[in-house]
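Below is one such protein, fold included:
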Amino acid sequence: MTKKTILITGANKGIGFEIARQLGISGHHVVLAARNELRLQQAVQQLMDLQVDVSGLLMDVSDVASIGQAADEFGRLNLKLDVLVNNAAILDKHDHSILRDDEVILKQTLTTNCYGVLRVVKAFLPFMKNPSRIINLSSGGGSMTDPVGGWSPAYCVSKTLLNALTRQLSAELLLKNISVNAVCPGWVRTDMGGAGAALPVEKGAETPVWLATEAPQYLTGLFFRNKKQIPW
């Protein structure tokens, strides 16, 4: 196995932390990024206790200045990235209706879930290797093929836009040999997914881990669930 350096946003809990855990115990160097400093430190310590090669990076993907500061800090580590996993996202508990809700909900959701991803990619692109990979955590709620589910419409719209960003980034980064894909992890038991979700967090991390470690480099501009391509 070739040891990789992998940056995961929103990695202090949930699917992000589980991705980091699985990759870390497999022998890769994982860099956990999160906006809450205390929770980030606790997550880093948990992985250190498992003998994982781990670093922490304070970053709020909804804040342009924070992203820039995190990129500067990463640059001081003198590392190059094999994989960037854009996992950080929000789902507002008041996100019920695209017509009735305050537009602030949609704006804040798009800022974190879409603009945040684009800004992180731009900031960390200078550190990406040739070849390397970008993995965007999306959702079936963002599908233009599946029926509209009637839940958290601002979140679903943000994931539709994220899927479009994934395709555009894939096209622009093709000549740099950087693969870009989106993943639907399924309905996972996390703080966001809730205790009644169908899947354990280990299953939600499975496809991102596969893309980060085993998937062929030529797979780019695609949408995956359970390690299989699905329609946009």
User: Anything to note?
Assistant: The chain has one domain: 5-229. The longest strand covers residues 128-137. The radius of gyration is 16 Å. Strands lie at 5-9, 29-34, 54-58, 81-86, 128-137, 178-183, 223-225, 228-229.
